[in-house]
Amino acid sequence: MTTALAGFALGLSLILAIGAQNAFVLRQGLLRAHVGPVVAVCALSDAALIAAGVAGFGHLATAIPGLEWAMRLFGAAFLIWYGARTLLAAYRGGATMQAGPTAGSLRNAILTCLALTWLNPHVYLDTVVLLGAVSAQYDDRLDFALGAMTASFTFFTALGYGARLLAPVFARPRAWQILDLVIGLTMWAIAAKLLFS
């Protein structure tokens, strides 16, 4: 039980940071658009990455020269594009809580979610490498992995479905502009960090 709690605590601490994936889940939750599938994609992707890290694939990033840099480059390119798209939406304004066409199709929501998850090198560094390395110190690595996976499912469910509590704030178009501005700048900041750190 202690091992599972350690996995839960570390997993939760890694997910809590504001990032592209969390911002996307928050936006979908506010729009009440495809929340279940988006939450499922995020949580299941995390579970797969945690399983890979705990199973020992964390060594792959250090074993293949250039892999980390390639992951950073692709991740930064995607974040720059996504940030520009979000900043353009902030500039145009006019978004409201009407989910309709502004929420996008289920297919687009899932593809965006997959890209924000699997093209983000921090996901690999945090989830695969860091969780994988920390899990090695525990005798029951399965409990550790299950704890970290539970943290992921708990967080994404709370973020996606809890976002609706903020719905009254986001009934105003100006609130959407501010959210899109913050998300866009966050994406660019993360991209810069990936490229220059």
Helices, strands, pairings?
Blueprint: H1 2-15, H2 20-31, H3 35-54, H4 60-63, H5 67-92, H6 106-118, H7 121-135, H8 141-162, H9 173-196
Helix pairs in contact: 1-7, 1-8, 2-3, 2-6, 2-8, 3-6, 3-7, 3-8, 5-9
List its traits.
single chain; 197 residues; mainly alpha; 0% strand
Shape: globular
Tell me roughly what share of residues is in helical segments.
Answer: over 70%
What is the CA-based Rg, rounded? 17 Å
Order of helices and strands: HHHHHHHHH
Quote the beta fraction: under 5%
Which regions have little confidence, pLDDT < 50, spanning 5+ residues? 97-102
State the end-to-end CA separation.
37 Å
Which structural class do the helices and strands define?
mainly alpha
Provide the domain count: 1
* Average pLDDT, all residues: 80
Strand count, sense and closure of the main sheet?
none
SS element count, helices: 9
Summarize the structure in words.
- The protein has 197 residues and is mainly α.
- The protein has one domain (2-196).
- The chain is 76% helix and 0% strand.
- It has helices at residues 2-15, 20-31, 35-54, 60-63, 67-92, 106-118, 121-135, 141-162, 173-196.
- Helix 1 runs antiparallel to helix 7 (121-135).
- The protein is globular.
- The protein starts with a helix and ends with a helix.
Put the structure in a nutshell:
This protein has 197 residues and is an all-alpha fold.
